[in-house]
Write a structure and sequence with these properties.
single chain, alpha+beta, binds zinc ion
């Protein structure tokens, strides 16, 4: 082969490559990394709205027989019923939240417990805080649990001797019974009736646990040390809970998909296990008022039945109460 022909060929190859590279550079358009039209199933799930937004939108319970579904901090409530806002010995607070719903066993428990607690403590009645949303599920703010209609917060502040207005029920602050250092109860706000209040709750057979601030548990240990404290094992220390108790009911028999919490350890809980709540590192932890948040959970984090429940029609009984005047 002719040598000059080889040189010319090589030259042409270089020129063509250079031109090609240049034109490629000019027309190169980077492919979008997050093309919304080409989302994978995984990405779709990642971008789905938080379940708390979907559940808090539902103003009425689902149709279907009452059932607690899932676990206290990851589940939902079928066929929820509403606790009346005002009863002879109770008033529901923070009505704007629409969280006075629960499994019928929770509502029946409160209707029975309210007069019992009033009689035992000498109070006019009890103030009831959050229960669950109409269909349960994660809440946009305030709690980790309260999702399956079996949790309720009850205030330490006794019910006043009159019906509170809607505005008062929004604005009144509960009375904090824990001292500023978090290590003791506050002598100015704590009273012996508070012990009776907690004991009355813990003694009810359907109650699984009563959560209180560790300083309150410590005080109970002090005053109950000489008594039969079999009810004390149900009273467990937890973050916050300084102006209310949190009562949790056992899974009802009608709810096969309700996951029971491991049983409380035996004994009165007045042992070394209580000490770690008073270490500096624990006292410094600022957990939100009610002990955490479930706002970030997605539908995929809940039992599949909760997705169906979210899309189910409203319970006809509850819809009837919505005709004409709104419930509140
Ligand atoms: Zn609570």
């Amino acid at each position: 082969m002719n040598r000059s022909l080889t040189v010319v060929t090589a030259f042409l190859v270089v020129v063509i490559y250079a031109a090609a590279a240049k034109s490629t550079a000019l027309v190169h358009v980077p492919l979008p990394r997050n093309n919304p039209l080409k989302q994978t199933e995984h990405e779709k799930k990642q971008n789905s709205p938080p379940a708390s937004a979907l559940f808090s939108e539902k103003k009425l319970p689902s149709a279907g027989r009452p059932m607690a579904i899932g676990y206290y901090p990851s589940g939902c409530l079928q066929g929820g019923v509403e606790l009346p806002m005002t009863g002879p010995t109770w008033q529901v607070m923070r009505l704007s939240r629409n969280r006075n719903w629960g499994h019928p066993e929770l509502v029946q428990f409160l209707e029975r417990f309210a007069p019992l607690a009033a009689k035992a403590t000498g109070w006019k009645g009890i103030l009831i805080g959050d229960m669950a949303q109409p269909r349960g599920g994660p809440l946009p703010f305030g709690h980790k649990s309260h999702q399956i209609g079996l949790d309720v917060d009850i205030w330490f502040m006794p019910m006043p001797d009159r019906v509170l207005s809607k505005a008062e029920r929004e604005d009144i602050l509960g009375s904090n019974v824990v001292a500023a250092d978090g290590k003791h109860v506050n002598d100015k706000t704590w009273s012996p009736a508070d012990v009776t209040f907690i004991r009355t709750a813990a003694e009810q057979p359907e109650v699984e646990r009563v959560l209180v601030n560790a300083a309150i548990k410590k005080e109970l240990c002090r005053v109950e040390s000489k008594n039969d404290g079999s009810w004390m094992s149900k009273v467990r220390p937890w973050y916050g809970h300084d102006d209310h108790i949190h009562v949790r009911l056992k899974c009802p028999v009608d709810s096969p998909n309700c996951r029971a919490q491991p049983p409380v350890p035996g004994g009165d809980g007045c042992d070394k296990s209580l000490d770690h709540w008073f270490t500096d590192s624990i006292l410094r932890i600022k957990i939100p008022e009610f002990g955490g948040s479930s706002a970030g959970l997605k539908l995929k984090d809940l039992p599949p039945a909760c997705t169906a429940l979210l899309n189910a029609p409203a319970s006809p009984a509850s819809a009837a109460t919505e005709e004409g005047e709104p419930r509140r």
